[in-house]
Amino acid sequence: MVEIVEVGPRDGLQNEKVLLPTEVKVDYITRALDAGIRRLEAVAFVHPGRVPQMADAEAVMAAVPRRPGVTYIGLVLNRRGLDRALAAGVDEVNMVVVASDEFSRRNQGTTTAEALDVWHEVAAAGIPASLTIAAAFGCPFTGAVPVDRVLGIAASALQSGPREIAIADTIGVGVPTQVRTLAAELGALGVPLRAHFHNTRNTGYANAVAALEAGITTLDASIGGIGGCPFAPRATGNIATEDLTYLLHGMGVGTGLDLPALAATGTWIGSRLGIQVPAMLGRTLD
């Protein structure tokens, strides 16, 4: 069984040009829940001037349906974001630490070490907290990221007891051999792992299978395959929830998700954004 964490409402919408109304975002989230999603990154508590797509985070959280067994995650980057997330009633927070200093400065205005200091403060807030190591496979400004660099970040983060650590291929440069190596090294630390892949170079789904084969059973994906990082040049969408689910089901791996409902939601969000989404499954259905 694989747990798919739906990140479309946050990592998906944050890189799209169209600013959707709050009610459409809530509809997107509701449709994801109706398709079986139970853990969902709903919003980011970041500066609205930097990421205007997330400016209504509190309004979204006030309107989302509260259902038994559903966990809403809020992304935070600093203490101000954490305070907003706690006040908005998220169930869990996710903190991002970027593996390269240059990308970290452009994304968060801090070095990696400074971001880790913030992580320790976030983890002490008394709410379940996960850490995503962004650009774990490569930086758009400085190139390849050494495995030891990622391991050092993870080792530091472990001091504050994260719920899990996610390895994120933020710019979509990783390949399966790298995924297996990094998963094995991090697995030796004894912390639950999650994986987050982008399909920029058409390797995202192969990387997801490699992560699964390496023992990672929690994968991020975005319904419609929308999104990317607004601070990474030419970054494209996440792997699509519906396409990943089709792949996993074909391999005999359960997800608990309704495949036609996911595909229909992917097509629907594309119509709201005025784009043809990267996800392929919806194009095969009548």
From TrEMBL:
Gene3D superfamilies: Aldolase class I (3.20.20.70)
A Pfam short name: HMGL-like
Highest taxon above the source species: Bacteria
Lyase is among the record's keywords: yes
UniProt domain Pyruvate carboxyltransferase: residue ranges: 2-263
Annotated GO MF terms: lyase activity
Presence of keyword Lyase: yes
Membrane spanning residue stretches: none
Keywords on record: Lyase, Metal-binding
InterPro entries per record: Aldolase_TIM, HMGL, PYR_CT
Family: Belongs to the HMG-CoA lyase family.
Protein name: Hydroxymethylglutaryl-CoA lyase
Source organism: Dactylosporangium maewongense
Origin organism lineage: Bacteria, Bacillati, Actinomycetota, Actinomycetes, Micromonosporales
